[in-house]
Every structure is written in C-alpha cells, then in structure tokens.
Amino acid sequence: MTPLLQASGLAKTFTLHARGGVQLPVFAGVDLQVNAGECLALTGRSGSGKSSLLRCLYGNYSAAAGRIRVRHGEREVDLTEADPREVIAVRRRTLGYVSQFLRVIPRVGALDVVAQPLRDLGIDADAARQRAAQWLDRLNLAERLWPLPPATFSGGEQQRVNIAHGLIAGHPVLLLDEPTASLDAANRAVVVDLIREACARGAAVVGIFHDEEVRDAVATRRLDIEAFRT
Ligand SMILES: Nc1ncnc2c1ncn2[C@@H]1O[C@H](COP(=O)(O)OP(=O)(O)OP(=O)(O)O)[C@@H](O)[C@H]1O
Ligand SMILES: [Mg+2]
Fold first, then answer.
1. Positions in the chain whose pLDDT score sits under 50
2. Is 59 strand, coil or helix?
3. Is 99 near ligand 1, meaning CB less than 6 Å away?
4. How many CA atoms lie less than 13 Å away from 138 in the CB half-sphere?
5. CA of 98 relative to ligand 1 center, distance in Å
6. Tens digits of residue pLDDT in 9-63
7. Taking Cα atoms as reference points, which of 90, 45, 89, 34 lies closest to residue 204?
8. What is the Cα–Cα distance from 29 to 54, expressed in whole angstroms?
9. What is the rounded distance in angstroms from the CA atom of residue 78 to the CA atom of residue 123?
10. Where does the chain show beta strands of DSSP type E?
C-alpha cells in the first residue's frame, strides 16, 4: 500500500529576521508515513514543534530540508517543491487542515463558511448549504447561529465551525491541530466519532490531541516529535 502522506528527512528552522537572523532549529530528520485508515497522533511537550510540523505538512511553513509527498488523485505531489497553484489544488481536493483557531472571515455567516469548501469543488450553492447544515447540526451548533458571522461566537462554537469547515469536503488526508481543545465532553465525543468515521472511509489523519482520552480513542499510532529535536 502506498502511503497517502509521507515525509522524509523533514527539518524546520525558524529564522528570526527581527533579531538579526537568529536561527531557531525546531526539528530535523522527521520521517513519517500515513496510510489510508490510519490516525497518527503527534506527541511531545508544549513548544516541541507539533504545530510547526503540521504546518509544514500543509505547505504553510517551508521546510529547511526534506520531502513531503502527498498522493493527489493519480499523482504524487512533493509539497516542498510544488508551485503555489499546485499547493492550492492539493488543499482543495486532497489535504484538509483544522487549525486550533478559526480564521474568521468578516461578514460571512457560519453556514456559508462551512459550505465554502464544497463550493470550491464546484458543488452548487443549495446543495453545499444543505450539507453544511447537516454538519453544523451534527456538531450541535445552535441553528440561530448559522446565518451569523462566527467572529462573536464562543471559543467552542468557533471550533465546531472550524471542524465542520475542515471535514466537510471529505479530503483523503486530514491534518488536525487540537480539534477538541475548547469543547465540552458531549462535543468532544462527536468529534471523536467524526475522526473515526473519516478513518473508516479511508482517510489518512495526522493529529495533535492534547486530551489523552481523545488521543486513545482515535490514534492508531503515535510519533513523539521530541525524538527529532536538534
Ligand atoms: N512563526 C514562528 N516564528 C518563530 N518561532 C516559531 C514560530 N512558530 C513556532 N515557533 C517556535 O517553534 C517552537 C515550536 O512551536 P510549536 O507551536 O510548533 O509547538 P507545539 O509543540 O505545537 O506547542 P503547543 O503544544 O504549545 O501547541 C516554539 O519554540 C515556538 O516558539
Ligand atoms: Mg501547537
């Protein structure tokens, strides 16, 4: 089986330009592979580089060294050398990302925020909004909030919009950064179910799960990022 996502020799170093170009190495030599149906949990202390690794895998942070290969349809794309247009195409169809905090778009209501990834795939507005409503309903977001822009939502409400937005397109590869961090027990359980359903349909997941109970419930493997400290 070829992995859906594969990183080899991956290294990340931040260059602090505001501090005369000081180099801050975070990790080096990271090798990982994720197959369909697997959920790889990144572990390690706060500040060890888990979110940075996830951002590298999403093509958001440039890597100092190494390769990131993503299975994109029939092809394999190396995100470390892909041009920006190709990165966008990979994110549209293949690579989903749930950040810890929602990046709020002013004036766009929650339902349309969640429908957007489907619109980007060419699905018509009504069908996209219907699917978005199902996701928000599943995540227990009060219906009166659906037309409202999420800017004023509570942390947990924003996070549920974010999760619906990240999962709705059914991407084959999912990157999840603390998706349950500000949720209550009932909603955490919903998100656990959603992640397990994603794996069951053959998605490859890489996630950071602060909550050990959540991690135990979803992870099929773990990778301690501290082993790659430089
Ligand atoms: N954009 C950035 N510029 C400079 N340094 C950064 C940047 N992003 C992260 N860092 C540094 O890289 C290190 C790893 O940060 P990262 O956010 O990846 O850790 P983490 O393991 O996700 O921590 P946490 O569990 O607290 O979320 C930290 O020392 C952080 O200060
Ligand atoms: Mg983090």
1. none
2. coil
3. no
4. 19
5. 17
6. 999 999 999 889 899 999 999 999 999 999 999 999 999 999 999 999 999 999 9
7. 34
8. 15
9. 28
10. 5-16, 22-34, 39-43, 65-72, 75-78, 95-98, 173-177, 204-208, 221-224
